[in-house]
Amino acid sequence: MEFNENRAARPFAASPFYLMFKLPYRLWKAWRLRSQTRKILQGLSSTQLKDIGLTCEDVRRYR
Fold this sequence. Notes:
- Helices cover 68% and strands 0% of the residues.
- By secondary structure, the chain is mainly α.
- The protein has one domain.
- The longest helix has 27 residues, at 16-42.
- The protein is elongated.
- It starts with a helix and ends with a helix.
- The relative contact order is 0.09.
- The model has no long low-confidence stretch (mean pLDDT 84).
- InterPro entries: YjiS-like.
- It comes from Erwinia typographi.
- This is YjiS-like domain-containing protein.
């Protein structure tokens, strides 16, 4: 018995409806993560940013 034959069926894995919701969800998650990261970095002082190798200008340009 092959590996693929022994797996449980995944009926919605290639469904167009599944894919239609998957991409916007992933884009939203990435946007939310960038937003949270930007908020945290904006709260750091210039010396703390220097410790991690960033400048205030880097934080302003981060989108």
